[in-house]
Amino acid sequence: MGAAAVTLISVLGVWAVWRVMVVTGLGQQTEEAALDGAGRFQGAFAPLADPVLRLGELRWLVAGSLVAVAVALARRRPLVAVQVAVLIAGANVTTQVVKADVLYRPDHLVGWNSGVNTLPSGHTTVAASVWAGLLLAVPRGWRPVVALGGAAATSAMGVATIVDRWHRPSDVVAALLVVLAWAALICALTPRSAADQPTEAGGGFTVTVAVLLGVVALVTGVVAVPAIATVAGFGPLPTSGMMTAYAGAVLAVISASLGTTAVLLVVRQATARSR
């Protein structure tokens, strides 16, 4: 029931993010301010962002998927391997279909990529789905460690897409929610045969990592919201306003990445525990 609720909330979250940040003029203006701020440092930060963005290419999606499936098969869990494959494929296909054929972007602004929908982010979906698949595949005791790695990796990918002005913050957040929706759905459908063995440990560390990720997500989110809100709807912005929006966007992406990872860790451990 909990995993199914997370799936529903995530789907509604994608719609809400799109409806507020993409469909409305105020949402578009807010994100455009963040991109203007990113543009001021793009030349300096691009060398750091470019190697991260290359990890969102198809070859790395395939490689990461094979690793996650191989881990499940090495544990003699063929059903989990199928779940991993369905999760990764489902999330990435959903992102591409939703972006190209379902959602749209009104022409409220004249400027970068105006009128072309970029939500959800494909690169973020690649990174988040591979790590989510690995989280499903590894033994119970390793999931908190994988969650920490996944939170760091997806944060890096999401921030990189903003630094290089490939995506807006809402694109990244929507992609994270797409992956969470698929992962939670898979967890909700976990049969008894795919559950953890009674001998598998991994309780206390899971709580520690989930709480840590949740607290950091909450703190960064609390800082990000007013940082973004202070520049929303004020027309042409001074440099300080652009930088405030840029910082708020980066913090919002990190908050979403850590928060969704924490939720997935809890959901996976709960639904996979030994009956």
Description:
- Keywords: Membrane, Transmembrane, Transmembrane helix.
- It comes from Myceligenerans indicum.
- It holds the Pfam family PAP2.
- InterPro entries: PAP2/HPO (IPR000326), PAP2/HPO_sf (IPR036938).
- This is Phosphatase PAP2 family protein.
- Helix 1 runs antiparallel to helix 7 and helix 6 packs antiparallel against helix 7.
- The chain has one domain.
- With 275 residues, it is mostly helical.
- It is built from 9 helices and no strands.
- The longest helix has 34 residues.
- The model has no long low-confidence stretch (mean pLDDT 90).
Task: Offer a quick outline of the entry.
This protein has 275 residues and is an all-alpha fold. It has one domain (2-272).
Relative helix content: over 70%
User: Hey, roughly how much beta strand do the residues contain?
Assistant: under 5%
Number-wise, the strands total 0
Number of helices: 9
Shape: globular
Uncertain residue ranges: none
Mean pLDDT: 90
Q: What is the gyration radius calculated from CA atoms?
A: 19 Å
Pfam families: PAP2
Keywords: Membrane, Transmembrane, Transmembrane helix
Domain Phosphatidic acid phosphatase type 2/haloperoxidase: 76-187
Protein name: Phosphatase PAP2 family protein
